[in-house]
Design a protein that fits this description.
elongated; 6-stranded antiparallel barrel; Thrombin, subunit H; 35% strand; mainly beta; 8 strands; 141 residues
Amino acid sequence: MRVELFDFELPQGLIAQRPAVPRDSARLLHLPRDGEPAEHVVTDLPSLLRPGDLLVFNDTRVIPARLYGTRATGGKVEALLLHPPDAGVWQALVRGSARLRLEEKIAFEGGLSATITGIDCDGTVDLDFGSEGERVLGMWP
């Protein structure tokens, strides 16, 4: 799978920054079995439900895991941290102005730095933050 196929521009104004106030005014997409998708609000939910309907809830939490950094050459890098496979080592999607190399060091915002210890064919890289790896985890609530 080519991960770059998932890249797209999403205008900042379409990304929720806070929960809706009041919460039951949040937008709701209704996909009826025998009709067209329609937009509603959460307060409409009781009138939309029928026996046998399936409700799908997304209760995931997202950390703002995008880091901006600089290579030794001065080139800019953007890293999206996916998950830490080992202590201090994060799997990430990284894009920059040139091809990344093993053992290359990247200086990130906040005084963090990482070394590229793996480059996978699926487009992910392993970023070793060393002893700062725990600090990376603590950057987000």
